[in-house]
Model the fold of this input.
Amino acid sequence: MLKKIFAFIRKDFLLESSYGLNFLFNIFGVLASILSYFFIDKLFGYTITTNLEEFGVNYFAYVLLGMAFFSYIGASLGSFSERLYAEQIQGTLESILSAPISTTALLLSFVLGNLLIASLNAAIYLVLGHFFFGIDFSHANIASTLVILLLTIISFSSLGIISASFILVFKRGNPLSWIIGTLEGLLGGVYFPITVLPAWLQGIAKLFPIVYAIRGLQFAVYKGYGIMQLKTEILFLLFFSVLLLPLSVKAFEYALKKARLSGTLSQY
Done:
C-alpha cells in the first residue's frame, strides 16, 4: 500500500515542481500576509489585548501562529475535492478510481502531498516570524502541539472527504465546503480569539473543531501547556475525529459506488 501511496505523491510532486515560480510566489504570498497583520497589529493591536491575555501574546503573534496552522486545515479540508475536480477536468478521474488500490490508500494519496506543502508553508511562517519579527517559540510543548495537529488533520480531512463525496455525486454542488469555508474565518478563532464575539456567536463557534484546534495550539506553543492541561481541547478534537472519520469513509465509498453505477465518473 505504501508504494502505491508514494507513487501518487511522486506524481503530484513532479507536477508541482514543473512550475518552479510557484514556490517563489508562495514565499512572497506568505510574507505579504505576515506584513499585513504586522502593520494591523501596530495600528489596532492594543485594542484587543485583554482578549489575548490568556495566551500571553500580542495580536500579531496570535494571528501568525493561526495562519501557519491554518495551512494544515486548508490542506486537510480542500485536498480531496480539489484533487477530484482536477482529475475530472483532466479526464483521468475514472482511471485513477479504477486503479487497484484500497479506498483508504487512495484517500491518503490525495491529502499527503498537500500536507507536505502545508508543512513547508507553516515552516516559512514560523521561521519568518521568529527571525524577522522576534516571536518567541521557546516555550512550545512539542508533544501536545503534535497531538493537536494530528487530531486536527484527522477531523478536517474527514470533513474534506465528505465534501469530496458531494463532488463525486453532484459534480459541482458542494454545500459543505461552502458552509465551512464561509463560517470558519468568522467563527474559527484564526484571525481573532472568539471571545471578541457576542456570547450567542461564541456558542455557535464551539460547535466547530477549528475553535478547539486554534485555542489548543496557542496554549501549547506560547504557554507550553501539556496534554493534561489541554484535555478539554484534545477531547473535543478526539470526539470529532472518532465521529467523522468512519462516517466520511463510508460516505466516500457510497458516493463512489453511486457514481460508478450511474456511469458518471468521467463527467464534470
Summary: The chain has one domain: 65-262. The CA atoms of residues 99 and 185 lie 37 Å apart. The mean pLDDT is 80.
